[in-house]
Design goal:
284 residues; 38% helix
């Protein structure tokens, strides 16, 4: 109780023994709440389907009783509150918590299981231990670090089969396979990616296809670029990625079929039709 008083900045005054008046005010408040808000003969499960409905009922009840004229002051509490606020201080935004609930181990997917439901937490807490508790209709997750306890996640309470995942708990994801930007981690990888956009596309698609010996094939592409030039090899890598040709020798095969300077499309000067020279002597 002393710690609670320190958190809210209030003084906890104990009642005087054998002095009913010193505790009458507190008892009257509890009695009014029981009579008007939570009738003892009523079943709360039928009266309130959620914690939010109970909170709304409390707010409506307070608005009602605070608007009534007090028999001692002959004034409504809501009117006196304007004067009393000059002597009051603002309460902390975070409530005082005596216990943080139950412990849970954060999985590699940055989720915890509570009540048979998966709830997400910040991905930086993977493999850490957190505390979970119920606050009304919400599930609150707290992490106790060296600097002290801090709330790291708050979800609406759910039921099994309906996980609660917050995208803000995870790092930004690429839009899709074509949006991924490979980052070189060695000089060999940097030299390969420097070949161009075709090399980047080849690496992404080869990884998605589960291609084996990727590093060896990357080194071969660099060697071919030194022999045939960067532009044709990058062009061949792009075509290999487009048509899923990641086998050994595929890149060299594409280059052989399209040698340097022969990366062109059909036109008047380069028709795919057979020539007519064989018909030159026809009829003579």
């Amino acid at each position: 109780m002393v710690a609670i008083g320190g958190h809210y900045g209030i003084t906890v005054a104990t009642c005087v023994p054998a002095d009913p008046e010193s505790k009458g005010g507190s008892e009257a408040t509890v009695r009014i709440a029981k009579a008007d808000l939570v009738p003892t003969k009523a079943n709360l499960r039928d009266g309130y389907t959620s914690w939010a409905e109970l909170v709304e009922a409390c707010e409506a009840w307070m608005a009602d009783v605070n608007a009534r004229e007090h028999r001692a002051t002959r004034r409504a509490p809501v009117e006196m509150l304007v004067e009393e606020q000059q002597r009051l201080h603002r309460l902390p935004d975070q409530p005082y918590t005596t216990v943080f609930g139950e412990t849970r181990k954060v999985s590699w997917s940055a989720t915890i299981s509570y009540g048979g439901v998966l709830y997400s937490v910040p991905h930086t807490l993977a493999d850490e231990t957190v505390w979970v508790r119920i606050d009304g209709d919400q599930v609150v997750v707290t992490h106790c670090s060296s600097s002290g306890p801090i709330e790291v996640a708050r979800h609406q309470r759910s039921t099994p089969g309906h996980p609660m995942i917050d995208d803000a708990h995870y790092p930004p994801r690429p839009a899709g396979p074509l949006a991924r930007k490979p980052r070189p981690t060695s000089a060999a990888e940097a030299e390969f990616l420097a070949l161009g956009e075709g090399a980047r596309l080849w690496l992404v698609e080869a990884a998605s296809a589960g291609t084996s010996r990727v590093k060896v094939k990357m080194a071969e592409a660099v060697q071919l670029a030194r022999l045939h030039g960067q532009i044709p090899v990058d062009w061949a890598l792009g075509h290999a990625a487009t048509y899923a040709r990641f086998a050994d020798g595929d890149l060299a095969s594409i280059l052989a079929a399209h040698p340097a300077g022969d990366h062109r499309t059909a036109g008047d000067g380069h028709s795919l039709q057979h020539g007519t020279s064989a018909w030159e002597g026809f009829g003579q």
